[in-house]
């Protein structure tokens, strides 16, 4: 397993070693011991989530605040996404900076998104299966987020505006400016 820290401290790209032959392939999706040795981060995942989405679905940018903050290990089982992690830790040198990567069922790459980050993804293919582990339980009262097209973030979602499909909740997320006015950052 290859583990590489992105330019956002604590955010890691994980590339598993895939063993294949004429029968198919095999790889270890997650190994706590190896992850902790290579990152120095101790993690205890307590919840697994999965979604299936059509092309153009954009989910995010979400976070859980305060004591309900979550670190996530995200991957795509089938299909393809642009996955985005935004450093939203108030005292971070890279606050407001984002890292994006294409995750797919073919490349098997994963992204570890630490607590205090916004996270979102946009599906680039129909029937994309997105899976992620969380180190804390979901809490509805602690959920928040920033609108996907916030001008200060300037994220390239690899989709045209008319291709993007949003939930009602995600259509009504705040900008960073509005968020700062109504919330205390992590």
From TrEMBL:
Gene3D superfamilies xref list: Jelly Rolls
Source species taxonomy: Bacteria, Pseudomonadati, Bacteroidota, Flavobacteriia, Flavobacteriales
Pfam families reported for this sequence: dTDP_sugar_isom (PF00908)
Pathway the protein contributes to: Carbohydrate biosynthesis; dTDP-L-rhamnose biosynthesis
Coiled coil: none
The keyword Isomerase is annotated on this UniProt entry: yes
Function of the protein: Catalyzes the epimerization of the C3' and C5'positions of dTDP-6-deoxy-D-xylo-4-hexulose, forming dTDP-6-deoxy-L-lyxo-4-hexulose.
Molecular function as annotated in GO: dTDP-4-dehydrorhamnose 3,5-epimerase activity
Organism whose genome encodes this protein: Polaribacter aestuariivivens
Protein name: dTDP-4-dehydrorhamnose 3,5-epimerase
E.C. number: 5.1.3.13
Active-site residues, Swiss-Prot/TrEMBL: 62, 132
Record's subunit section: Homodimer.
GO CC annotation: cytosol
Source organism superkingdom: Bacteria
GO BP of this protein: dTDP-rhamnose biosynthetic process; polysaccharide biosynthetic process
């Amino acid at each position: 397993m290859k583990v590489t820290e992105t330019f956002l401290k604590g955010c890691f790209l994980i590339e598993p070693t895939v063993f294949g032959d004429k029968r198919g392939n095999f790889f270890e999706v997650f190994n706590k011991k190896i992850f902790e040795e290579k990152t120095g981060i101790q993690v205890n995942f307590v919840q697994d989530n999965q979604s299936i989405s059509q092309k153009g679905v954009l989910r995010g940018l979400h976070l859980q605040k305060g004591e309900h903050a979550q670190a996530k290990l995200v991957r795509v089982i089938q299909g393809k996404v642009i996955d985005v992690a935004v450093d939203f830790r108030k005292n971070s040198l890279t606050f407001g900076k984002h890292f994006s990567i294409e995750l797919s069922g073919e490349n098997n790459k994963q992204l570890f998104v630490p607590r205090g980050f916004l996270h979102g993804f946009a599906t680039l293919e129909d029937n994309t299966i997105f899976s992620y582990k969380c180190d804390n339980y979901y809490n509805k009262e602690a959920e928040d987020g920033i609108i996907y097209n916030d001008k200060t973030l300037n994220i390239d979602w690899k989709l045209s505006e008319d291709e993007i499909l949003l939930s009602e909740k995600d259509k009504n997320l705040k900008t960073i400016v509005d968020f700062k006015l109504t919330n205390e950052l992590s």
